UniProtKB/TrEMBL annotation:
Domain of life of the native organism: Bacteria
Highest classification ranks of the organism: Bacteria, Pseudomonadati, Pseudomonadota, Gammaproteobacteria, Vibrionales
Signal peptide bounds: 1-29
Record organism: Photobacterium sanctipauli
Name of the protein this chain belongs to: Phosphate ABC transporter substrate-binding protein
Keywords for this protein: Signal
Length: 157
């Protein structure tokens, strides 16, 4: 009986570790399959090249076609989608982007995109409807059919 009780914690630990490794693997694999759409509800917005999308999200440009002044919106800092998006598009982490934007803001060369309080697609769409020249990003499968997708960003591109 005593021997059986001594094995219980070891068995519980082994089961927990197995569960965690399976859970972590499936979540990680799922995250890698996500592709993002950079989109607007304004049908007059032109499509973007990857280079132009990078320039927008680095604050290097605020206009499209030389005349359309755009406004970017960002997901909350704690959003897994924000981390994935910046990693896919720019190869940067959130902390690297925060440092980058802090530097631009301090020098007066730029301000970071407005940050939403939620990454719910309804909140993103509400913001876009209030900002006709607004551009947002979200997982492709969450973007409504009537949105103007400017570019899709895939893992490993």
């Amino acid at each position: 009986m005593l021997n059986g009780l001594k094995l219980m914690p070891k068995l519980a630990t082994a089961c927990l570790l197995t569960f965690l490794s399976l859970t972590t693997t499936s979540v990680h694999a799922e995250a890698k399959d996500v592709e993002f759409a950079v989109f607007s509800m304004n049908n007059d917005m032109p499509t973007l090249s990857k280079s132009k999308a990078r320039m927008l999200y680095k604050g290097k440009t605020k206009k499209l076609n030389g005349s359309i002044k755009i406004i970017l919106v960002d997901l909350p800092e704690n959003s897994i989608h924000r981390e994935e998006f910046y990693n896919m598009l720019l190869g940067k982490s959130i902390s690297q982007m925060n440092g980058y934007w802090a530097s631009l803001s301090f020098s007066g060369k730029g301000t970071p995109p407005e940050e939403l309080s939620s990454d719910d697609i309804k909140d993103i769409l509400e913001w876009l409807n209030q900002n006709p020249n607004g551009i947002a990003y979200a997982p492709v499968n969450a973007v409504p059919e009537n949105a103007n997708i400017l570019i899709t960003v895939l893992q490993g591109e």
